[in-house]
Amino acid sequence: MRKFCLSLMKSVLISGATGFLGSHVLAALPGVEKICLVRSHAVLKGCEIWRLDSAIPEKTVDGFIHCAASVNPDNGEHNIALTKRMLAITKACDVKHFIFISSYVVETTSITSYMIAKREEETLVKASGIPYTIFRPTAIFGPGDKITIGKLHDAVKRGKLIPLPDKGVAVMQPIFVKDLAKLIAAALFNKKAMNKTYTVGGTRTCMRDIVTLLCTMQQRKRKTIAVPASLLQFVVNILHLCRLSPLHPKQVKNLVKDFPVDISQLQKDFGFVPTPFEKAMKETFG
């Protein structure tokens, strides 16, 4: 059996490489043989392509970064099945370090199918017997974001009235996608990260301040209205029944509850210093 050293890692499998996070992970891995697992006929420059609808080659690979997932709150079973498939490929390819991208929602009270699935996926990873690192990022933003702060940016650009749940002052720590991608890449070579779980967040802010910053950057007048959480919950419930809501009803609680992230372990193991929020926003939308 070959001896394995993290510093000698030369090849890595990546799922979700065509997605928002995965594309940034690819950019953070120069000098490493990258093999991308894809469902479509995607073409990724500088990468070997393995298609999930074909037989997976029998090839030893050093690391595996599992980014692929559906973010639909009601699509948990799909994610569980996908992670099971990725773990089977990991064992077949004799992978020595599996990096799983989970979510901070596993630490919240938002009981969605997505959250339950992420908890089960983490359990599967830990029980697999494969050395792992699990990252639980908060809301991810950056170039290419269309789901989190990207939606707020578009709403401000269109001059929409933006509701602020309970005045929008709940503490949040969105993570800049380039910071997260660098952490994921660094974990491949970091013995301290082996068999650990990290919640990842950036510098502190809140929804009200994010909207204010976006308005300043676009030189627009802020159009916001403070909405009691109970009223927002009622409206989202109605819109969800009509399939018109951008939020899942069970996600509303997360908008009005502080979610501070302790990054001390990341600082200790990686020397992690998040990009200041305003700087990251200017790089993304400036």
Q: Can I get a quick summary?
A:
The chain has ten helices and eleven strands. The chain is an alpha/beta fold and 286 residues long. Strands 3-2-1-4-5-6-10 form a seven-stranded parallel beta sheet, sandwiched between helices. The protein has a two-stranded parallel ribbon with strand order 7-9.
By DSSP, the count of extended strands is 11
Number of H- or I-type helical stretches: 10
Strand content: 15-25%
Strand order, biggest sheet? 3-2-1-4-5-6-10
**Uncertain spans:** 1-5
Helix content: 25-40%
Order of helices and strands: EHEEEHEHEEHEEHEHEHHHH
* CA gyration radius, whole angstroms: 20 Å
- Mean pLDDT across all residues, rounded? 90
Principal-axis shape:
globular
In terms of structural class, how would the helical and strand content be classed? alpha/beta
Intertermini distance: 52 Å
- Biggest β-sheet, characterized? 7 strands, parallel
Would you mind describing this structure in some detail?
The chain has helices at residues 20-27, 76-92, 113-127, 149-157, 177-187, 207-218, 229-241, 252-255, 264-270, 277-285; strands spanning 11-15, 33-38, 48-51, 63-66, 97-101, 132-137, 140-141, 162-165, 175-176, 196-200, 224-227. With 286 residues, it is an alpha/beta fold. Strands 3-2-1-4-5-6-10 form a 7-stranded parallel β-sheet, with helices on both faces. Strands 7-9 form a two-stranded parallel ribbon. Strands 8-11 form a two-stranded parallel sheet. α1 crosses α5 (177-187), α2 (76-92) runs parallel beside α3 and α4 crosses α6 (207-218). The N and C termini lie far apart (52 Å).
